[in-house]
Amino acid sequence: RLVPAGLAAGIAVAVAIMAFARRQMSVAAALRHGLAHHAFILAYQPIVDLRTGRCIGAEALLRMRRDSGELIGPDLFIPIAEQTGLITRMTERVFELVEQDAGHFLARHPDFHIALNISAADLRSASLLPSIDRLLQRTGARPANLIVEITERGFVDPATARRALAALRERGIAIAIDDFGTGYSSLSYLESLDVDLLKIDRSFIETIGTGAPTSQVVGHIIAMARTIGLRMIAEGIETREQAEFVRRQGVEYAQGWLFGKPVEFRTIEQLCAIEAARPPGEMSDE
Ligand code: C2E
Ligand code: MG
Ligand code: MG
Ligand code: MG
After folding, report:
1. CB 62 less than 6 A from any atom of ligand 1
2. Does residue 121's CB lie within 6 angstroms of at least one atom of ligand 1?
3. Where are the membrane-spanning stretches (predicted)?
4. For residue 151, which atom of ligand 1 is closest to its CA?
5. For the segment 157-206, what is each residue's pLDDT rounded down to a tens digit?
6. Quick one: CA torsion of 109, 164, 151, 133, rounded to 10 degrees?
7. Are 42 and 63 a contacting pair, CB within 8 Å?
8. Which atom of ligand 1 is least distant from the CA of 258?
């Protein structure tokens, strides 16, 4: 042996770390470039009411367009944006994009919702509330038009999370726990935070109908959430069987390829415009 095994392993790890750091740096540079050159766009996925089949809103999902035209998905860049602190600027951009894409539509459709994803760092950021207020002021959208989605990672600092969520709720903005079931928060903790919606993670939805032992879990999660009065959105519904299962268990809303993939907002407008109209009997201000 030229190099002892322990040292060789150490060198391998060091090389891997350097490669990772280089890659992360180049991604961070690409993200900065993207922010400066308006390369970020939002795709919108319909959210439907399982009881009526109607579209009640859409989730805004971020993508980056490379100079080559290729679209990069958020799983590749959000973690690096979070590690490098670029995420707060990116979230500000998301609010600007929602304003451009959907502001006009939201002002005319009080029952339509846009769900946005925010990161743990956004809860600590001084720019979150001003971004929201600017969107509302400039468009005439109402706080009730917005749903803010936070994963359980957002609660690592409970005091900060509590303050930020209270400020959102005071404005009348709904709060959803994203990817529920993949973290460690208990339902009783979420109940104490006074959240409005739970998004049941796709990994649970995938087990429906498989007969796997884990397929029992999703029914229990739904039953517990119902017990404490939380409304739910099932994520990643791809089959009628999954939709029927969650609907029978009392889940109110769903998202997934069965109902629609993420698309540009104009398509959502066409899909949802009529359905988002006020319920019959309500006054129209148009
Ligand atoms: P998420 O918020 O849980 O969003 C759901 C993801 O599942 C989206 O992936 C969506 O395209 C995908 N999906 C929806 N329905 C189906 C289905 O039926 N089958 C399958 N296989 N997938 C489905 P996407 O757009 O790649 O986003 C991934 C994650 O990136 C999001 O997960 C969210 O955590 C994060 N993300 C997206 N946009 C933003 C953003 O603006 N800010 C932040 N902080 N995070 C974002
Ligand atoms: Mg989400
Ligand atoms: Mg989710
Ligand atoms: Mg998810």
Report:
1. yes
2. no
3. 1-21
4. 34
5. 888 889 999 999 999 999 999 998 887 777 778 778 889 999 999 999 99
6. 30
7. yes
8. 18
